[in-house]
Amino acid sequence: MKNSKVSVIIPVYNVADYVAECLESIINQSYKNIEIICVEDKSTDNSPDILNQYAKKDTRIRLYYNRENRGLAYSRNIGLDAAEGDYILFVDSDDYIEADLIAVCMEKSADNDLICFDYTQFDNIHGPMKSHTYLINDGEYRGENYFAEAVKSNSIIFSAWSKLYRKAFLDKHRIRFCDGLLYEDILFSFFCFLKASKIYSLHNRFYWYRIRKDSIMMKKVSAQSLESYFFIICEMARDYVNNHYKQELCDAIQGYIRKASRDFIQAYRKSDEKAAKAQFLKNKNIKYLKLYDTFAELCVKSGLLEDISNEHLEYIKSFRYVILYGAGDIGRSVLEILDFYDIPICGIAVTTAWGNRKSLMGNRIRPIEEYEYINKEECLIIIGVTEKYYLDIRNKLNKFGFKHYLKIQDW
Does residue 94 have a pLDDT over 80? Predict the structure, then answer.
């Protein structure tokens, strides 16, 4: 694979403060056989001028200009159609990458359809860094095995930029981004995981992902956000029910859809429901609006728990992993509050799977022993059950080595 070309696709929109750093990190890759495809999405700042300056300095840079602002999905598709490389890497124009990202990934490419790697998230507003690490072993996997392990260990990354792709694989399965959607990465990654024959997992943190106050992910939940989430969930469900998949893949698909559904519920609770319905009508998504009304009823808060103190909120946020113990009505109310404060959980634990539901608000429910892989020092167990069960549950947690607990009666 030493002679294979890699196409790096960068959609660009109003990132004059960051795009030079992004381009520098790509131009200076140790792997030299690359082309850099920048798709300028009608910026209103001087991003185009910066692109032109770099294109004059490096002939590997190719510039494309959208006639109007079309968004990430459209721009990435332009890049995919123009790409001449054997492999594809997406980089967002306000992020940057390590100098050996492409070189190391290409060493593992062989006949793998995807090479997945870790990333570091840094906050352009406040400064703290957060590293994401896959909780699965390095190495080569059959596609369905990787998908299943990643979902089971809560190691799925929706983002398109967290992977290197074999272009022939994307073309064969006609995998492209759905134009007009927000969070288009969710659906794109879904079909990549679903169709890939072989996937290689790398624990290297190659990618630096910037959080900034004016980015899409930091903007207020909009009607378009809800429509996009729900459209994506429906499209994944439609594929699932219309195809016959092996049981391992079925479990992975269900887990992936649950995760996306949880994000939808979290967004729904912060949005204007009437505006969301109007967005469906505006875009003539009437068939999904029928389902949306039913689905939205599941997002109504139960009200069993009113809120949480700032002291306990900060305590919970100090842990890298959070597990909820309890899948009943109290557990649901705990999830509502955690969702409101944007606190993700690794999953829901119960004493036994027998007699319990399989998921709650998009989170998988498993016996507590299945969470033994979690680092106990960095994990908090929130015990969301009635007081009379607390002591028995705490003794069981001690047996499995868990050290940090918080019971909802103390909230």
Answer: yes
